[in-house]
Amino acid sequence: MIKKCLKSFYIGLVLILLYAPILLLAVYSFNEVNTIGTWGSFSLVHYQKLFGDPVILEMIGNTVVLAIVAATLSTLLGTAGAIGIYYSRKTVKTLLGGASQIPVVNAEIVTALALAIAFVTVGLDKSYFTLVVGHMVICTPFVYLSVVPKLKQMDGSLYEAALDLGASPSKALFKVVLPQLIPGIISGFMLAVTLSLDDYIVTSYCKPSGFNTISTYVYNATLKGNAHTAETLSSFWALTTIIFVLIVAVVLVMNLTKKPDGRKRNET
Amino acid sequence: MRVRFTRKMLGIPYAVFLLCFVIIPMLIIVFYAFTDREMHFSFSNFAKFFSDPTKLSTIVYSLVIALITTAVCLAIAYPVAYILARSRMKRTYVLLLLFIMPMWINFVLRINAIRELLNWIGLLGEANYFNTIVGMVYDFLPFMILPLYTTLLKIDSSLYEASADLGGSSFTTFTRITVPLSMPGVVSGITMVFLPSMTNYVVSDMLGNSKVTVIGKFIETYFGTDWHMGSMIALVLLVVVFVSAALTGGFSPEDNVRGTNL
Fold first, then answer.
1. Count of CB contacts below 8 A, A vs B?
2. Lesser CB count within 10 Å: N end or C end of chain B?
């Protein structure tokens, strides 16, 4: 009994530490003050600032659009790549499988530097294109690595059967192979979205000047103090709270709409 | 001539993409690392870097920060993963989700939240190394919990029973069964925490009051001034990464915190 209490206490303690910064911001986001530690009355002023600032709204939009664009392209490229490579010779498989690991295990700063230097070397100015490429470099290998296990689990004779029954190779691919890869493709896409939303280092090396995502904007705002810093920083409290509430909502919806057997999730 | 479609061809765009944006950039890095400003082959970057005492001391500091961060993460995460993996609760995964959910908040916003907290208790600007380590532990902890949890979950529970039946105390069971069998998770967690804590300069920039430099920051600084030097450091990091990846047998997406399905 004591042991069980100790366990719950420990888990609770770590969770409290993990959520303390987020909850602190959430509480203060509804307070009129600009510095944490002082206390004023309830107010939505930080939310008004957040939604009233076109620069902040633009960078939020940029972040979301970039994540969707990069994740979609990565998913197409990575899925096609996984299928193609799966049916290639063993040497091709080993080589490209190995190359896929590079951006995954590499330190982000190394990937970022290599890309930035390569862009300059071929005379490519930083633009939205280089930024999307940068994000695709981080995301695509994750899609590839999510789809490959599904290909391995698949029964290879199904494709042959489809061909025997008169389907064209492309039809067999779309109607027989692809549907079986859907779980891998979806988790690869989700992974790509979160990686893109989260990225700072590659973004800062590949983005055109004047373009900001949440990461680069917040990083610059915290490091460069100016007259508006306190104002800007407190609007981030509201932003953090909104993002957190969205995450909780998504997690809840996903779990409530799912069958109660949750054990399986850890085995994917 | 009409080219017949084969499944293999689907891999071509991906292969070209990897070649252009992953392999060639890495080769360019290698080229810059081994040349001097006149583009002549040279080892001078290595010599220059490793003979500068201030740089060496920064590297040592950075390594120490990374070691402490990794050790603290392991110390906090192991009991968490162990308790969760052995819990008989039906909805343990809800608890696991609670540990992972903060990861879905934007990384920089998360560090900003820690920054506000440290500012509130008066530590910001006072204890730069401490703050940096706190931020890193906070940020990388779930990267340690998840691989530990997945390996601990895979341990056959009849092994615990067998150990108890054969007279092993719970301590013996833990040291002789649990720890050895969880080693793959430990190794994978360590690599996933150690590398970013050496290279991710966002945390040290935002929490270290510009007083803490991690190895990754060198690259950032050299990008503006000396590509040869920057590439050399990048190359060293690259080699470190590949040696550790070879030792731990590569990476699987299931170990990535963000890879956990909702």
1. 265
2. N
